Amino acid sequence: MQTGRRAVLPALAIIAFGAASPAQAHPHVWIEMQSDVVFNDQGLISGVKLTWTFDEGYAQVALDGLDKNGNGTYDPEELEPLTRENLESLKDYGYFTHVRFAGKMQAMGAPAESGQTYSDDKLRLHFQLPLVTPVDPTKGEFVLKVYDPEFYISFNYLPDATVAVTGNMPKACKPVLKPVPTDAEVEQTRAMLSTKGPDWKPDEQEDFGAIFAQPVTIQCQA
Questions:
Q1: I need a labelling partner for 211 at 20 to 30 A (CA). Which of 71, 88, 150, 193 fits?
Q2: What is the tally of structural domains in the chain?
């Protein structure tokens, strides 16, 4: 047994039993998310905004001892150290944010406009990730996926979730949140994975998590 193998969200004591395969792994932290696509003045995609709402169990552990003034609320300055620590740890995992344009992985810059709030019994982390090189959505397919390849953290959109945009999106384009895979599709994928050897990898340098992740795309008419 390996203890502390992953300190992604440092308020949790993370214990993992070996290197679980995707078919065996199961989540320990649940996140409901909102993903927004950011456009610059030239109509290029320049980044993404992410808002993560943590499950109650994680929130209770993360908030323990942070109400320094004892007023029963969590002020921004009380949550700032948690935000800073989480983002620093998430850096090693690329913030679980995977962006492709025209089939190629895109490099992301350091997070900005970050913060954390606690209201209505919900702990929320928000931050923005810039693309190192902005891309033109009319020239290729833009795809955003947020997921944990090891399935320790479950990222999910709410059933009625929509994708918002910020900035100057070209009129010919629209954001689309593609449907989550059906149970039948998931089982079909799991059955396929069970037939593969230990050295098998998905195509186009994607990992196992990408197979199950729900994608956000920007679709533009010619």
A1: 88
A2: 1
